Amino acid sequence: MTDLTAAPADLMIETPSWAYGNSGTRFKVFAQQGVPRDPYEKIADAAQVHAFTGAAPTVALHIPWDRVDDYAALTAHARSLDVGIGAINANVFQDDDYMLGSVTNPDPRVRRKATDHLLECVDIMDATGSRDLKLWFSDGTNYPGQDDIRARQDRLAEALEEVYARLGGDQRILLEYKLFEPAFYTMDVPDWGTSLVHCLALGPKATVCVDTGHHAPGTNIEFIVAMLLRAGRLGAFDFNSRFYADDDLMVGAADPFQLFRIMHEVVRGGGLDPATGVAFMLDQCHNIEPKIQGQIRSVMNVQEATAKALLVDAAALKSAQETGDVLGANAVLMDAYNTDVRPLLAEWRTAKGLSADPIAAYRASGYFEKIVAERVGGSQAGWGA
Ligand code: LRH
Ligand code: MN
Ligand code: MN
């Protein structure tokens, strides 16, 4: 049997700075107590998630939500709290200029402005030591005929080429896709195929980011994962879960079986090996639940799915598949999925000097009471404003 006490533990999960700020829907942002007032405090909260899980050593930034004067100082602050700065997420979707698109806008002035922001994000990566530039474009059209679908792809390719040329030696582009929202007729990067086509044209430092909330209902995400790993172009996950649209709920909450199936393909495709270069990130908003606890729970959910995926008896599965034993093969997967891995993960945590129950330990730590007392007037994540 697989050594469960080692492997899921090696999986490191990046948390997003925006998960710690207030968020909501377009109907209402509920202000929570103790939320961070600036990027420094967001990183301090992310450090708590790492302290109690031992599995969240980096935090992703979103620019301009996390803009500061001195990124070296912010990086040093992160290090002093035993975490690092991870991916830099560009934001070319919250400016009036971008109503008709950012890098695909018909107006060259707007395209220049958007591309300059992406280049600025690479400057920030140089200062923070980040490897990954995550690009998500809200660009698209609402009405048939509104703009030339092909010309928009040409503009996108041109901007991506310029940014790709600016990347340092080990820096990468993660190109995220999304089928819908905010554009309702065409999104310019709607799916993994479009992302992959652009990545292949750019070169090996361009890879696809799979946000689990960005597909049509019923889409087989684990198939996409298998295909991208096979092509060597799975760069990252933005993990979250959804019931209806891009709900950004805690990963593993809506459909833990889907998360298991995804992690099974990750294991199958060698994606747990850091050399494969898959970044495991959360992209979530905790609109009604406490944020730090929501992140801890999410990290644990990914660990549980991973532990179960590692329990799959690969030899038994292969032999059942090769002999056409449909039910036997399915049973191998289901046996692993139906195993309660929580005691094993608790053992792993204890062996690492962590609490067996990270949520209880965090609740007992007094951190929440401390930030509620210290912080007044916390910041908004950026969503739902
Ligand atoms: C878009 C998205 C993208 C953004 C984030 C805040 O829906 O998933 O990753 O950067 O949300
Ligand atoms: Mn995302
Ligand atoms: Mn999203």
Would you kindly provide a written description of the structure presented here, covering whatever features stand out?
The protein has one domain: Divalent-metal-dependent TIM barrel enzymes (TIM Barrel). The chain has 385 residues and is of the alpha/beta class. The radius of gyration is 21 Å and the shape is globular. 44% of the residues lie in helices and 12% in strands. It has helices at 7-10, 39-53, 71-80, 108-128, 149-166, 192-202, 221-230, 256-268, 291-311, 314-322, 326-337, 342-351, 358-365, 367-374, and strands at 13-16, 58-63, 84-90, 132-135, 140-141, 172-176, 186-187, 206-211, 234-239, 279-282. The chain is built from 14 helices and ten strands. Helix 7 links the parallel strand 8 and strand 9 (234-239). Helix 4 (108-128) runs parallel beside helix 5 (149-166). The strands form two sheets. An eight-stranded parallel barrel has the order 1-2-3-4-6-8-9-10, surrounded by six helices. Strands 5-7 form a two-stranded antiparallel ribbon. It binds 6-deoxy-beta-L-fructofuranose and manganese (II) ion (2 copies).
